[in-house]
Amino acid sequence: MNEFNWTFVAIAVLGLFGLFSFLATVVLSLTWYERKMLARIQMRVGPSRVGPHGLLQPVADVFKLMAKEDVRPDVSSKSLFWIAPVLVLVPAFLVWITIPFADGLVVQPQDLGLLYVVAISTLGIVGLLLAGYTSASKYSVLGGIRAAAQLVSYEIPIIVVVLAIAILVQSLDLRDVITGNEVVIGERVITFNGQGAIPFAAIMPLGAVIFLIAGLAELGRTPFDIHHAESEVVGGPFLEYSGAHWAVFFLAEYFNTFVIAALTVLLFFGGWSWPSPPESIFGTALEEWQTDALGVAWFLFKTYLVIGLFFWFRGTYPRLRIDQLMAFGWQILIPLSFVNLILMAIVMFYEWPLWAMPAISVPLLAATAYLAARRNDRKVNTGSVTLYRRQKRADGGNELVPPAAATYEEAGARGAGN
Amino acid sequence: MSGELIVFYVLSAITVIGALGVVLDRNVVRATLMLLIALLGVAGIFLVAFAEFLALAQILLYGGAVTIVVLFSIMLTRTADLRVNLDNPQRPMAALIAIAAFVLLTLTFVNSDIGELDGTTSVAIPGADVGSSGFETVGDVLFNQWAIPFEIASLVLLVAMIGAIALARSDDPEDAGEIASGSPEGAGQKT
User: Fold this and answer.
1) Helices (H), A42-98
2) Which of A317, A356, B90, B175 could pair covalently with A352 via S-S, beta carbons 3.0-4.6 A apart?
3) pLDDT-based confidence at residue B177 (cuts at 50, 70, 90)
4) Domain-by-domain residue ranges, chain B?
């Protein structure tokens, strides 16, 4: 490892190109999938004119975005404004380097894969904040700050759930999460099972639910899309972007959607392995490339199912208010994720059977859901807006007058006079 | 010149340029971005030194969290005031402290056994293989050998956090009520 290996660099560059092309294709398919799925939910047909079943619609969209005029607000800082989309896209892409599609099919396997994924994905937040700030619009600044607050808050439950997974497999390598891990302590060899037989969602249902919800919030998808909610902050950080630069944000968003879904499948639903197809149905033993191809297909199928779940949420759930969103993150998700982590640590330390995890955490999850729902029922009035009137004082200054009953009588009298 | 050395020089150049940008750029937001570049450059140098865990921790804590907090505080305060305040009479004092810190760090560096680093063994963590990421060893050293300093450090952080909340929080109950009810009274009085 002391000699710097140029062939290694060449292979890495080729791998990155291949990965990027693959992901770009996936994004094209995802836009079509999302539009079709939303259309079905709303009893529409969706894209149907370009190509069979509208399959070429994403390609047409790409041409449209590329041809569009790229406008920059005059007051914004030029370099920062153009660099912000790149700052969002690059981390979203870099995360993919360590994600295994099948056993051995990964651009760069890492011992610290889980930590890498978590660390790199935080970098994208800086890009969103910058995009909001440099757009020099009140809506985008608000959107940028909302994005940062939301993403930083929901990063914590994700990290804590990932920690629990690391305790369960005693490794941070994403491949070990699937295939299992062996730890040698002195003479003793302890085997930690992967997800070949039992997916971690069965062992850690609490963790799976927290990861799905926090992941959805991390993506800023409905019902957590408060940082680019059209009716509140117009487009948020993306407000002033158009054409190719907006497309970069768009690409990053779908990269992230795909990565969260892929991580959900890898961490909780067995990635390419569970449930592994019995070799007997093929008659002969498979060659390596055949098992790999089968694994990739299986992994992608599950990932698309999870993404379908995200689109389904988008079609059916109303958006959360910002205070509800932050309260939910800090008061429910983060404590629950710590409970999950401590439970996992206790179960592993005292070597309890693994079914103790779901046995404890499922009733806990049900109880939390019940209590949260009851609290929401009780606290109906969560905030009100009082309309103040500005009135001229005798000395020329302004005075704010709280609304009084007189206001309505006045209005009534005026109405009657007319 | 080996490829490794080229990568090291490029990363060092990026780090130094980023650090200079933090000090020299008058635009506070751009300076923060330069800070991010400098911190990521340092993470890259950690990678060249086979300290993967340190590099990722650097990206997670400094690249992500610290930069975001700095940007956040810039956006929530008035940047127009900050632009004027960049220069102040404390300059000589700051220079003195910076030079003292530089001398101290250089002396520590020169007197350490970093020259014996041959790329196969880790100097910081004795016994750790370079091939593995060594995070088991890091955890072992941190939570066994240095457990008490580690706990004290986290206690200091906790105290700082509580202190920040106590400072930022207004004791005036009316003030808190205003934010909750969304009344525009405060905004009205300012204008």
Assistant:
1) 57-67, 78-94
2) A356
3) very low
4) 1-87, 88-129, 146-191
Region A151-157 average pLDDT: 89
Residues ≥6 apart with Cβ < 8 Å to B189? none
Contact call for A3 and B182, based on CB within 8 A: no
ipTM at complex level: 0.74
A127 and A251: one domain?
Answer: yes
- Judgement on whether residues A134 and A215 belong to the same structural domain of the protein: yes
Domain housing A358: 68-276+290-378
**A229 and A94 co-located in one domain:** yes
Judge whether A395 and A387 are in contact, CB under 8 Å: no
Give residues 50 to 69 of B whose Cβ lies within 8 Å of A.
52-53, 56-57, 59-60, 63-65, 67-68
Contacts of A356 (CB under 8 A, 6+ apart): A347
On whether both A414 and A299 belong to a single domain, the answer is no
pLDDT digits (tens, 9 = 90+) for A299-343: 889 999 999 999 999 888 888 888 888 888 888 889 999 999 999
Q: What is the pTM of this model?
A: 0.81
Least confident of A214-228, A253-267, A396-410: A396-410
Whose tokens are 């952080």? That residue is: B157
Is the domain of A350 the same as that of A409? no
Note the Cα A262 to chain centre separation in Å: 11
Coil, strand, or helix at residue A160? helix
Residue B48 at interface with chain A, using a CB cutoff of 8 Å: no
Show the tokens assigned to A279: 């070799």
**What is the per-residue pLDDT across B25-38, written as a single tens digit (0 to 9) for each?**
877 788 888 898 99
Angstroms from A2 CA to nearest CA on chain B? 7
Backbone angles phi, psi at B44, to 5 degrees: -60, -40
**pLDDT for residue A272 is more than 70:** yes
Beta bridge partners of A181: A192
Q: Give Cα separations from A68 to A29, A65, A137, A247 (angstroms).
A: 22, 5, 21, 10
- Identify the CATH assignment for B1-87 out of 1.20.120.1200, 1.10.12.10, 2.130.10.10, 3.40.50.300: 1.20.120.1200
Substitution target in A4, A134, A171 with the highest count of B β-carbons within 10 Å is A4
Domain total in chain A: 2
Residue A386 to residue B183, Cβ atoms within 8 A: yes
What share of chain A has pLDDT > 90, as a percent?
A: 11
DSSP β-ladder status, A398-401 and A389-392: antiparallel
From A42's Cα to the closest Cα of chain B, the distance in A is 36
A222 and A135 fall within a common domain? yes
Beta bridge partners of A390: A400
User: A239-260 as b/e, with b when 16 or more CB fall inside 10 Å?
Assistant: bbbeeebbbbbbbbbbbbbbbb
Q: Which two tokens stand for residue A100?
A: 């295994």
Q: Is residue A218 part of a domain?
A: yes
The whole-angstrom distance between B160's CA and the closest CA on chain A is 19
Chain centroid to CA B4: 26
